[in-house]
C-alpha cells in the first residue's frame, strides 16, 4: 500500500504511528485507558479530543484542510472507539462464547448504541470521529482481534431509488476489496449515520462517509450519489475508499451525463470528473 | 485593524456579510444563542439551533476566513416558556464542545421569576463548566434591570472578571465598570449605542475591560459597526494600539478564559479565492456557489 496516504481510520489502528502527531500524547494514552476501563468516559474524551490532540491535517502537504484523509483529532477519536471496541468484544474463542460472558453480538449492539448517541450528540468533528471509527473497525475486520458476529449483506433496497433505475444488487466483494463487513448491529447503526453525513454540505463530513465503511456497507445508489456529490463539492476523489473496485456502469453513466451537462454549459470538466470517466470506462 | 466581534448572530446574516466583515478586518466572532424572532415551542428546537451554532455556522464562517465560536444558553425571553425550559438539562453537554467559549446570552428580559430562576441556574452551569458568561441587559427598564442583573451575578459567587455585561449605555456603564466586570457596548444603526457615543464613553472610562460589538442579527443592524467604531476611535485621537486592545485583545482575553478560543488563521484560506478542500484538486467548484 505504498503511496496511498493513511487515513484517520487507518491511523486509529496504529497508536504508535499516531502518537507523535498528537499535541498531547500523554492525554491520548490516559484517555484510551480510561475509555477501555469505563465506556462512560467516552463522550467527554470525544468532546475534548480537538483541544488535547490537536486539529491539524494528517497529510498537510496534499490535504491542507484535512478534509480528504482526516485530521489528527479524527484519528484520535477513532482510536478511542477502537480501544472501547477491543474491550467490549474480547473473547477467547470467536465462535463459542464462554458461559457467563456476554456474547460478541451483544457487545456489538452496545457499541452501536454508543456510536449512534455520540454521533447525534456530537459536533461536526465528533461526527467525523464516529465515521472514521467505523472505517477503522471495518479495516480491522480481518485482523485477529476482529469483531465477530453476523455480517450484514451488502444488498439493500434504497427507498429513494427511482423506479426507473434497475434494482441491481451491489458489486459482490472481490479479492481487490479487502474490507470485511461489520457485525450486523454495527452495520445497521452505522449506515444511517453515514447517510446523515452525506446529506450535509460540510465537505469534511461528506468525505468521512465514503471511507472503507461506506465502501463496504452503503448501498450502490447511495454510494454512487456520494461519489458524485464529492465532485460537485470539489473534494478530491482520493477520499473515496475502493473507488476503482466499486465504480460500476451506472456510475459511469452518471459521470458521462454530468460531463455532457458541463460541456453544454460551457464549463470546465473538473479533473476528478475526468478521473471518474477514466475509471468507469472499462 | 484586526477585529474579534464578541457578539454577533451570524445565523441571521448572509455570505455577503461574511465577505464584507473579512475585508473590514474581522477574523473571529462569537455567536451567542438567542431567540430567533419567532418563539420556539420545544427543547428539540433549541438543540437543533445549538448544533448549527457549533456545526454548520462554524463551517460557513471558515469558508470566509473567519473563526466562529459560540456561547450557549437558554435566552431570557424563552425562559418564560416551560416547554423551552426543558433545554436546561441539555446545556451542560454543549458547554463541553469545542469552540463554546461562554454561557450566553443569559440575563433578564421582563424580569419575571422564571427569568430569575433560569439566569441563576445557568450561572451555576457556567461555574461547573469553568466558562465565562455573556449577560444581556434588558431594553425596557434598563437601569433597574442592570442593577438586578449585578445582584444575581454577585449572589452566584462568580468572579467579576468572568462576566461580560452587554448592551450598556451612558446610564449603566458605571455600575458594571465599578463592579469589576467587563462592559459591552452594542453599536447599532439607530438604537442602543452609536459609534460617537461609544467613543465618548471610552474616553471617559478608558479602554480597560471595555468591549465593542455589532450584535448584528435579523433586525436592523450592521455587522461592520465594530470596524466603524475603530475608525471613529482613530479619528478621535486614540492610537492603533488602543483600537487593537478594544476590538481584539479585550474580547480575546475575556473569552480566552474558556481555554477554548482558536484565533490562528483558517488553514488553506486565501482572501478573494474560493476555499479549496484539498490542493490536489484544481479549479474547484465550491460551496459558496454550489449546493450538491
Ligand atoms: Zn444578541
Automatic annotation (TrEMBL), chain A:
NCBIfam families: EboA_domain. The lineage of its organism: Bacteria, Bacillati, Actinomycetota, Actinomycetes, Micrococcales. This is EboA domain-containing protein. Residues 146-186 are annotated as: Disordered.
From TrEMBL, chain B:
It comes from the Bacteria. Keywords: Hydrolase, Metal-binding. InterPro entries: Metal_Hydrolase (IPR032466), TatD-like (IPR001130), UCP005295 (IPR012022). One of its GO terms (molecular function) is hydrolase activity. It holds the Pfam family TatD_DNase. Gene3D superfamilies: Metal-dependent hydrolases. Belongs to the metallo-dependent hydrolases superfamily. PANTHER family: HYDROLASE TATD. This is TatD family hydrolase.
Amino acid at each position: 500500500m505504498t503511496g496511498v496516504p493513511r487515513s484517520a481510520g487507518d491511523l486509529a489502528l496504529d497508536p504508535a504511528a499516531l502518537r507523535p502527531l498528537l499535541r498531547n500524547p500523554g492525554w491520548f494514552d490516559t484517555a484510551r485507558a480510561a475509555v477501555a476501563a469505563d465506556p462512560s468516559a467516552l463522550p467527554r474524551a470525544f468532546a475534548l479530543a480537538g483541544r488535547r490532540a490537536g486539529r491539524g491535517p494528517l497529510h498537510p502537504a496534499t490535504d491542507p484542510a484535512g478534509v480528504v484523509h482526516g485530521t489528527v483529532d479524527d484519528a484520535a477519536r477513532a482510536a478511542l472507539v477502537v480501544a472501547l471496541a477491543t474491550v467490549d468484544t474480547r473473547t477467547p474463542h470467536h465462535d463459542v462464547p464462554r458461559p457467563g460472558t456476554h456474547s460478541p453480538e451483544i457487545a456489538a449492539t452496545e457499541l452501536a448504541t454508543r456510536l449512534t448517541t455520540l454521533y447525534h450528540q456530537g459536533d461536526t468533528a465528533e461526527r467525523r470521529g464516529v465515521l472514521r471509527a467505523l472505517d477503522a473497525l471495518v479495516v480491522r475486520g480481518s485482523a485477529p482481534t476482529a469483531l465477530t458476529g453476523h455480517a450484514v449483506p451488502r444488498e439493500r433496497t434504497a427507498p429513494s431509488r427511482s423506479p426507473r433505475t434497475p434494482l441491481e444488487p451491489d458489486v459482490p466483494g472481490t479479492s481487490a476489496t479487502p474490507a470485511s463487513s461489520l457485525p450486523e448491529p454495527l452495520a445497521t447503526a452505522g449506515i444511517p449515520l453515514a447517510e446523515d453525513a452525506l446529506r450535509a454540505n460540510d465537505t469534511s463530513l461528506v468525505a468521512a462517509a465514503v471511507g472503507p465503511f461506506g465502501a463496504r456497507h452503503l448501498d450502490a445508489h447511495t454510494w454512487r450519489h456520494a461519489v458524485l456529490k464529492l465532485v460537485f463539492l470539489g473534494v478530491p476523489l482520493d477520499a473515496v475508499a475502493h473507488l476503482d473496485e466499486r465504480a460500476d456502469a451506472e456510475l459511469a453513466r452518471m459521470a458521462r451525463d454530468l460531463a455532457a451537462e458541463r460541456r453544454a454549459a460551457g464549463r470546465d470538466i473538473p479533473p476528478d470528473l475526468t478521473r471518474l470517466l477514466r475509471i468507469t470506462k472499462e | 485593524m484586526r477585529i474579534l466581534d464578541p457578539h454577533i448572530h451570524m445565523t441571521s446574516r448572509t455570505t455577503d456579510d461574511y465577505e464584507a466583515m473579512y475585508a473590514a478586518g474581522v477574523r473571529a466572532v462569537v455567536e451567542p444563542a438567542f431567540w430567533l424572532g419567532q418563539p420556539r415551542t420545544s427543547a428539540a428546537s433549541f438543540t437543533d439551533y445549538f448544533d448549527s451554532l457549533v456545526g454548520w455556522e462554524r463551517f460557513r464562517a471558515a469558508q470566509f476566513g473567519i473563526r466562529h465560536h459560540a456561547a450557549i444558553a437558554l435566552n431570557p425571553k424563552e425562559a418564560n416558556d416551560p416547554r423551552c425550559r426543558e433545554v436546561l438539562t441539555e446545556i451542560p453537554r454543549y458547554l463541553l464542545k469545542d469552540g463554546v467559549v461562554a454561557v450566553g446570552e443569559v440575563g433578564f428580559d421582563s424580569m419575571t421569576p422564571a427569568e430569575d430562576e433560569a439566569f441563576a441556574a445557568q450561572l451555576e452551569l457556567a461555574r461547573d463548566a469553568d466558562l465565562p458568561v455573556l449577560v444581556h441587559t434588558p431594553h425596557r427598564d434598563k437601569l433597574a434591570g442592570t442593577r438586578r442583573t449585578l445582584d444575581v451575578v454577585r449572589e452566584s459567587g462568580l468572579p467579576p472578571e468572568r462576566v461580560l455585561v452587554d448592551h450598556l449605555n451612558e446610564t449603566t456603564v458605571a455600575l458594571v465598570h465599578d463592579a469589576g466586570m467587563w462592559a459591552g457596548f452594542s453599536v447599532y444603526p439607530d438604537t442602543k449605542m452609536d459609534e460617537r457615543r461609544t467613543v465618548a464613553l471610552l474616553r471617559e472610562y478608558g479602554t480597560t475591560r471595555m468591549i465593542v460589538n455589532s450584535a448584528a442579527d435579523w433586525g436592523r443592524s450592521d455587522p461592520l459597526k465594530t470596524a466603524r467604531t475603530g475608525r471613529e476611535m482613530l479619528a478621535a485621537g486614540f492610537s492603533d494600539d488602543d483600537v487593537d486592545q478594544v476590538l481584539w485583545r479585550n474580547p480575546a482575553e475575556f473569552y480566552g478564559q474558556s481555554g477554548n478560543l482558536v484565533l490562528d488563521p483558517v488553514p488553506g484560506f486565501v482572501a478573494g479565492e474560493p476555499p479549496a478542500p484539498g490542493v490536489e484538486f484544481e479549479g474547484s467548484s465550491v460551496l459558496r456557489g454550489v449546493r450538491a
